Fold these 2 entries.
Entry 1:
Amino acid sequence: MTQNFFDTFNLPVLFNIDIDMLNHQYRTLQKTIHPDRFVNATDAEKKQSLQKSTQINDAYQVLKDPIKRASHIISLHQVLKENTLPPDFLMQQMEWEEEFETINDLEQVQLFSDKIDGEKKMLMDLLAMDLDEKKDWESATNIIGKLKFITNLFLRIQQKKLSMDNS
Amino acid sequence: MALLQISEPGKGTLPHEHRHAVGIDLGTTNSLIASVISGQATIIQDEDNVKIIPSIVHYKDKELLIGESAKKRQLDDPKNTISSVKRLMGKSLSDVNPKDFVIELEDGNGTIGIKTNVGLKSPVEISAEILRHLRLLAEKRLGHEIKGAVITVPAYFDDAQRQATKDAAKVADINVLRLINEPTAAALAYGLDKKVEGNFVIYDLGGGTFDISILRLDKGLFEVIATHGDSSLGGDDFDQLIEQWIIKDANIPMEDVKIRQRIKEVARKTKESLTTKPKVMIDELEGINKELSKEAFASLSAHLTEKTISCIKLALHDANLTTDQITGVVMVGGSTRMPNIQAAVKNFFGMPLLNNINPDEVVALGAAEQANILAGNTNHDLLLLDVTPLSLGIETMGEIVERIIPRNSTLPVALAQEFTTYQDGQTGMVIHVVQGERDLVKDCRSLGKFTLKGIPPMVAGAAKIRVTFQVDADGLLSVSAKELSTGVESSIEVKPSYGIDDKQIKEMLASSFSSAESDKENRALAEVKVEGKQIITMIQEALNADKALLNKNEIDLIYKSINELTNMLEQEDRNQIEQKITHLNEVTADFAERRMDHSINKALAGKKIDTLEL
């Protein structure tokens, strides 16, 4: 049985999460059970505090990150599957990879970065619809696969930008 | 889950009723100790009213000098006068270049040994001498025994370096409330009284280390969001540049350690003078007559300054922030006095810097504030959430690192990984834990090879061993293991192959310069009795508050254990008392968990009221 991390923060199971509420609940919990609050406690309490504080950090990491949050929601309903990407997306991947290799000035990198960011936002909206309204786990799993690639590409673009900035 | 602690065997921190707590900045060059006195964090001065104690220890026959008096011996006896020992903490001989040191280094069974007149000394022992000196100084000045300390470490310190620092405190007989990162301590010193909110960059350039930290301060929560740095970049490197500049084209016998020491001294003084003067004349050394201007020094050291700016960029990238999202920049560490550094940082962020607290004192002051909070002396509901500075990984096939806990993860953090056996009847396995960001094992820092033993013999692949890597609030790693198909966990031993073990710490304690053996035994007995009394008080308070969470049998069991401990406290048998304390902790473990769940539910239920208050 997968533990429901939304329960940890007393939040409804939704992809479109109330981030402010999550942050607030996280802080409230850490202020209650963090090991710093149990420096003068018994060993049994210290151990408990360490364990709970660790679990809350873990749950927070998952819910804070959209992709991890989406996977977590699916895992609450079915066994997670390896996603197979559709052939047209594989073609798209190759095109992007080629573009990533060829861009070589800051302006081009910025344009490409904006394009990928737009793509990411669009997929996020689709993902929210699949998870929160249609409950279509299959389709959501596919979108997560695409998003993983896009997020990684976006990170590489930012690194490229950073190294151009430095030189 | 019974944790087999490798980081701190035989742990049993003493709870205390009266709370004289201190903050200690154990620096590469200088150390300071501070405490909150009448509500104000204050640096404790020594008998000569000096606040800054040089981190220098001098050994000679029966004589042990620490601080300023040791520093005076550096010129006439450099080999027995040890400075910058922090650079050697948690390192092995292969990690350093012995030629960089005037003192003689040797392999000390995995760690470094330093040759002195009184034998081989380890960096832990030398640091412990400094810590003990500070503790005694504070106890004398405050007129009370110190019950706990927060000790600061560079954010970039790895597990071995943190562990070595904690070991040194143990040898110095100091109860460590928490290890905190130096930049975080500085932020505490700046943030507590000012009630600021926003993203802050802490630029910390000390004698031997450079750290950059980005913190978010929001509603009583200090959250470290990213750290970066260089554990071997500091003011000493700027000194060295001047040193090389002085030596260049001059005919100086390099094998003469006294002359080298002298040049080092002149280089440091020149750097310090350049913070206020446009140029400095160097003529006190025979055969050398040179002038160094502020501008010439700035261009001489431009590559070092640039290195620190690159680190800022990386940290901002990790935090996903740009310079215009930064509310303030805090300057920490004596080396930030250099005008070229101030100018470069100010220019990069395009805003005035926060530097009104003395950069030498700010870390110790912040640590004292945190010690005061942890000791429970204040109603601040401030909480500090720190992160892992470096990724933790394990070695896999082909000497490739598999990352298990990424850096910048909020502490405490844990990750469980499952392993299996590859041979029939296999009863042991070795897990190699490394720290660092590189992909190859050889490019990372090896923390140790942990040996799992006592796996029940089964066919290959049948055993399922779940290994849990836990990094606690001090940033220290512990490893626990459990065989899942049989549930065997207690017989699996986890042994670190690196650093010093509990036995060695005890030996160091025994061989230390202070108090005789009988004193130690008496003190240990007295301490364990205090601990016993306190745990009884705490559990009785817990019972008074939350008895409803237990059934009658459970309550009876706890009272029985309390009575047994109470009876034992009247006798003089330390081992028996310790056993009864352990027993009481065991029978109250479930109770502790239920109370914790209870307070979690209460905290979550109270959210509406909380929101209104904000």
Note: Chain B has a mean pLDDT of 84.
Entry 2:
Amino acid sequence: MINALWPWAALALLGAYHGINPGMGWLFAVARGMQEKSRRAVLSSLLPIAIGHEASIVMVVVAVSLTEAFVPPFFVRLLAALVLVTFGLYKLLRLRSHPSGFGMRVGFTGLAGWSFLMSSAHGAGLMLAPVLLGLPVYAAYHSLREISLQAVAAASLHVAAMLFVMGVVSVVVYERVGVGILRRSWFNLDLGWSLVLIASGAVTLFTAV
Amino acid sequence: MATTLLKPDQTFYPSPRLAAKAPVETLAYMVTFDPNRKKPDGLLTLDVDPKSAGFGTQVGRAEVPNVGDEFHHFGWNVCSSALCPYAAHPHLERRYLLVPGLRSSRIYIFDIKPDPKQPKLVHTIEAKEIAERAGYSRPHTIHCGPDGIYVSALGAPDGNAPGGIFVIDHDTFAVKGRWELDRGPQQLAYDFWWHLGYDTAITSEWGTPNMVEAGVNPELLLAGQYGHKLHIWDLPKRRHRQEIDLGKEQQMVLELRPAHDPSKAHGFVGVVVSLKDLSSSIWTWYLDGSTYKVEKVIEIPAEPADPNDLPPLLKGFKAVPPLVTDINLSLDDRWLYVSAWGTGEFLQFDVSDPFKPKKTGSVHLGGIVRKAAHPKSGPLNGGPQMVELSRDGNRAYLTNSLYASWDEQFYPEGIKSWATSIHARPEGGLSLDDGFFSTFEQRTHQVHLQGGDASSDSYCYS
């Protein structure tokens, strides 16, 4: 039972981690709130950010599930490990990359698009790969539709956790704490993030051998 | 070249309100140039700590390996805009100063981290790289943007139009290329800045390199050929949106000072000279619905003068034009500072209501005819020109040279360079007391303050 639950718990925890990272969205929501001088603007920014994040995650989750369905587990893990380590090294060497063409006046689709690109560029979905590999594979005896359902369920749990944390943080910062907190508490998550990507790649490889 | 911090650079502030509470500066950086193009220009470090015995004196000087660059404006590799949500990079360090040679088109990059008092030259972007990658030349204004370093250039490599903006990568210092995807009718360039909260960039107009490098051309001037327009751009889409003509008689539309508060969409621009009466003026631009408009809000008249006291260029006019060549806006968007380089006056206006400025202070230093003295000097020449403001708004730093070839036309006896700091009272008013006054061998130009000042940073949060 515990074995069946841990991947889901990990997905939610990673969601919370994405939610708390200012660069992944809550800061954008706060900035829009301050620009419009309204809490409504903060809250209405959260949904498109979550949608963009979900789209980015689903992409990876579907890819992982499909690969699992058609490729022997050993090679799946090997592939995942390679992708994770390569991406982590790339992020270490080139820490900052900005999606271009965005500004403060993005609309709903703009904000979702921005969030999709940010999440993809950060490898937010990739990070889930080792966890997803812990989910049971239905593909051997069920349809592609079920793979997709599991994929969407996994991504949605992750994004729900992210949305919750992001919502709480953005409202608290907007209403109470103020953006001054950025100077004190915006730790360089990117650096740790690259290292975690590489480490989880190594772990995936280890469990594959 | 770039380095990564574990916490945000502590000189970054999310909002102008928070930046105004930053620690008081103790060092200032000032560029100087040799008008004879015989000795290398310099990046000087000044002690600006009033408690220090060396208050106002030079404590360091970095040199470059070339002559004739003509240092003019300069800027930081990164600043508070790094906290903007859509392109955040808060862990990049503010440690490099980018110093363009306005005549040579080189950009020198100095590292101030190992020893803030003695900047170290670490990289040079050659004119060729700018010309090949961006098609521009004569780099002028530098602003650290949310997603790169933006630089305006006066013109093309052949010295003609168009001038425009190019972008430098803030990690590698590679020239990324021309910024404009669609420049519309814009040809002349000078200053630029933006309203980050409105995704809007604004550019102004001086003249092409061929129109300015040999000095102001009276024929072009009287024909109204120098710049008289503002251009409004979509910042993320990099497209021209609107041209605002201030009128052909409004010659040389220079320094742009948008409100620092990103939720406000207005700002101030100075016009050097009106062909109608030699006056200078300040205009307020503002967003009205979906278009920008301008309104003249301050006019500074020319002062009658004896032709014998005037340089050849002005004798026929029997008047000294005020020549407003630089302005600056305090971080709280309340105080506007205006340099009248011709009459030697430095003015302060309360612009709480940007359409009804109230004059609240004035001091005289130098001037073509007045030659006003500082309490610590004899009569001065040149006049208040580049003005930089501390983040708390209490001190203004002034230097007195404009541009080598133009200096000679308005001050033919040769500018004797000085730099000074002026006390700005929090309730309004200016005084020369308790500031420093220092003279320099080379011509002095822009000043920037350690950690940031009122023209170095932009913000995405109110």
Note: The domain at 16-449 of chain B is CATH 2.130.10.10 (Methylamine Dehydrogenase; Chain H).
